[in-house]
UniProtKB/TrEMBL annotation, chains A, B, C, D:
Segments traversing the membrane: none
Domain HTH tetR-type: 15-76
DNA-binding region(s), residue ranges: 39-58
Record-level Gene Ontology MF annotations: DNA-binding transcription factor activity; transcription cis-regulatory region binding
Keywords: DNA-binding, Transcription, Transcription regulation
Protein name per UniProt: TetR family transcriptional regulator
Organism: Acrocarpospora phusangensis
Taxonomic path: Bacteria, Bacillati, Actinomycetota, Actinomycetes, Streptosporangiales
InterPro entries in UniProt: DNA-bd_HTH_TetR-type_CS, Homeodomain-like_sf, HTH-type_TetR-like_transc_reg, HTH_TetR, Tet_transcr_reg_TetR-rel_C_sf, TetR_C
Pfam families per UniProt: TetR_C_11, TetR_N
Length: 202, 202, 202, 202
DNA sequence: TTTTAACCGAGACGGTACGTCCCGTCTTTTT
DNA sequence: AAAAAGACGGGACGTACCGTCTCGGTTAAAA
C-alpha cells in the first residue's frame, strides 16, 4: 500500500546528471557562448552525459538556459541600514563588482540581450535575479522616505531606475572601453542622485 | 583602351545587389534574428542573390551586420536651445520613441547585446549611433554649466550616464512588461535629474 | 534443507512473460522486420513487458530470434509411401504452400538470409526445420533406390539438392514477381527430375 | 545563347565523390554489413565525404545500396558453344566460383535476403545481375532443343530453375557447413540434370 | 510467520546513427 | 571579372533504439 507522495515507477532521474548539465551550460555561457552558439552537443560532452538525458528534462535550449540562469542565486548583500546612502552604495557596488567577472558579464548579456528573442528566458531571469534586488532597493528608498531622509514626494520607481540604469550603463561603457569601472563609481552615482532625492530639511 | 579614372576590367559590381543584401539583412534583423541566428543563406535568398556575392563583399556575418547597422543614420533631433530642460527632454524622448518600433528595438538589441561577442560591431555602432548623440547631449549640459543654469561642479559625464542609462533601463523594462513607456517619461526623468544638477541660484 | 529438483529461491520466472515475448517476436518478424530491424524495445512494448525481462533471459537479439524460430515446429507431412513420385510431390508441395504465407516467408527469409551474419541462428533453424525434412526426403529416395524404382547409382544428396533447390528458387522467383507459384509446380519439378533419376527398367 | 544539352548552372556534382561513396558502400557490404547495419555515417567517413553529399544523391540507404549493387557488372563468361553440357557447366561454375568470395557472398545475401523488405532493391539487382545470366542460359538450352540435343518438349524455364536453384542451394549449404563446394559440382549437377533433359536419340 | 532472494514493470542512463539544415568554400556557366 | 547557381566537407539539430542500470513492488521458498 503506497502513501501519498509516492515516487513514480522506474529509475529516478540522477541529480548528479542534472547538476552536471546545468554546470556545463553555465561554464559554456561563461566562456562566451550565446544562446544560439551554445550547442547541446557541447553541453552533453562537457557534462559527460548523453544528449538524451538533456532532452528528457528540457524541451529545448532555451528552457535549459533558463533553468541554468535561474540556478544562479543572486546573493544580496546584507546592508547596514544606517543611512540610505550607505545602503544604496552597497547595492550598486555589488553590480559593479559583478561586472568585473567575465562569467557574470556573459550571463547578463545572454539574459538581457535575448530578451526580445527568448522572452520566457528573460522573464525567469527577471523574477529570480532582478526583482529581488529591486525589492531590496525599493525597501531602502521607502525607508528613507519614511524617516524623512528622502523627499516625501520622491518617485521611488523612477529613483530606482536612475540608480540601476546609470550603473548598468556605466559598467557596459567601461567594459566596452576596456577600462574597469572606477571603484568609487557607486558612491559617485549615489551622491549625485541623492542631491535630488533628499528632503529639504535633510 | 581606357581613360583616366578607368573602371577595373570586367563586370562591375552591381549596386542593386549590394543594396538588396543590406536591406535583406536589416529586414531579417528587424524580424528578430540575432547575429548568430541570422543566416547568410536567408539573406541571400531574400535578396535574390548568390551567397558568393555576399562573401565577395564581406568577410563574415559580423562585417555585413556592421555595415548594415551603420547604414542606419541616426537623425539627431534639432533642439530649440532655450532651456537645458527642453533640450534634454527632446533628446531623451527620441530614445523613447525609437523604442516603440520593433525594428529599432531589435537593432539596439543586436548592437548592444553582442558587444562582448562582436566587439568591432559594437564599436562601429557606438561611433555612428551613440557617440554623436552623446556629443550633442554633452554640449547641452556644458552650455547649461556655462550659463549657470547647472552647477559649476557638475560631473557632466556622470550626468549623461544618469540620463541615458535611466531611459535605456526604462525602455527595456517597459518593452519587457509589454507596456509602452509613458509618454511623459522623458520629462519625468529630466525633472528628477535636474533637481540635483541645477545650481543653487537657479 | 532442500530436496532434489527443488526450485531456486526467489520468485520464479513468469511463463506468461516468456510466452508473450516469443509471440511478440514472431509477430514482428511476421510483419516483415529483419533481425536488425526488429527492435527489442518494440518486442517489449508489444509483449507488455520490461526490457529487463527480455535481457534476463536472452543475451542478445539473435538468441531471442533463434528461440522464437525454434518454437515453430515444422509439422512434416505424413506420406503415403506408395510411389517415390507421390511422396516427393507431397514434400515439395508443403514447401510451396508454406511460401504462400507471408509469415512463413518472412521467417524463411530471416533464417536463410542472415546465415552469414547470424550463423548460430541459421544453425538452429537448420537443425530444427531443415534437417528433419531432409532426412524424410532422403528416406524416400533411398527407399526408391532399394526398391529399384530409382537408379542404383543415384547420388541421393545431389538429387535432394536438385529437388529442394529448384523449389526454393521457384518460390522465391514467384514471390518476387508477385505471382503465386503454380499449384502443379511440385509435380512438374518431380516429374522432370525423376526422368533422370529413374532406373532403366522402371 | 545556349545550345541544347547545356549543363545546368552551378557546380556540377563530383564524379570522384560519387565513385568514392559507391566504393565505400560496397566495401562495407563486403565486410559483412547488412542493409540495416550499414551506416550512412560510416559510408561518408570511409568515402571522405560529407553526409550531405550522399543524401543529395540518394534519398535513403536502400537507394544507395541499390545503385551500389547495380554497379557490379556481372561479367558473363564467354561460352564455347560446342555442347550444351560444356556451356551449362561453364555458367554454373561461375556461380560456384563467385560463392568462394566473401564479398560476392555478402552482396548476394543482401540482395536476395532483403527482397521482402527492400523489394525495389531486389528488383534492380534482378534486372542487372540475374536476368542477363538467365537469358544466356536460356539461349544455351533453346539452342540445345533446336539442335535436337535436348528434348523437344523440354520446359526450358523449369530446366533453368533446376540448374540455378540446385547450384544456389549447394553453395549456400556448403558455405554454411564451412566446406567449399566441390570443384566438380557444376559438372555433377549438369550431368544429373541432362539425364532427364536429353532427347531419346541423343 | 517472517525473512529473503529473485523476479517484475517502468524508466533513466551514456551512446550511436538517423536524416535535415546551415555554415563558409569551391566550381561552373552566364552576363 | 562579377553574377547566379548550386555542390562540397563539416557540424549541430532533435529523434529513435541500443543494451545497461536502478528503482519500488511482487511472489514464493527457506528459516
Amino acid at each position: 500500500m503506497s502513501v501519498t507522495g509516492t515516487r513514480p515507477a522506474g529509475r529516478p532521474r540522477s541529480e548528479r546528471a542534472e547538476k552536471a548539465i546545468v554546470d556545463a551550460t553555465l561554464d559554456l555561457i561563461g566562456e562566451g557562448a550565446s544562446v544560439s552558439e551554445l550547442s547541446i552537443e557541447a553541453v552533453a560532452a562537457r557534462a559527460g552525459v548523453g544528449k538524451t538525458t538533456i532532452y528528457r528534462r528540457w524541451a529545448n535550449k532555451e528552457e535549459l538556459v533558463g533553468d541554468a540562469l535561474a540556478t544562479l542565486k543572486a546573493p544580496l548583500p546584507v546592508v547596514a541600514g544606517r543611512t540610505v546612502r550607505e545602503d544604496l552604495v552597497a547595492y550598486l557596488d555589488v553590480m559593479r563588482q559583478d561586472s568585473l567577472h567575465v562569467r557574470t558579464r556573459c550571463i547578463m548579456n545572454i539574459a538581457m540581450s535575448d530578451q526580445e528573442r527568448h522572452p520566457r528566458l528573460y522573464e525567469r531571469f527577471h523574477q529570480t535575479a532582478i526583482e529581488p534586488r529591486r525589492a531590496a532597493m525599493r525597501a531602502v528608498l521607502e525607508r528613507g522616505v519614511a524617516t524623512g531622509e528622502l523627499r516625501a514626494d520622491l518617485d521611488v520607481e523612477l529613483a530606482m531606475g536612475m540608480l540601476t540604469g546609470t550603473m548598468l550603463w556605466y559598467t557596459k561603457a567601461a567594459s566596452h572601453g576596456g577600462a574597469l569601472p572606477s571603484p568609487d563609481l557607486a558612491s559617485r552615482i549615489v551622491d549625485e542622485a541623492l542631491r535630488g532625492f533628499r528632503s529639504a530639511q535633510a
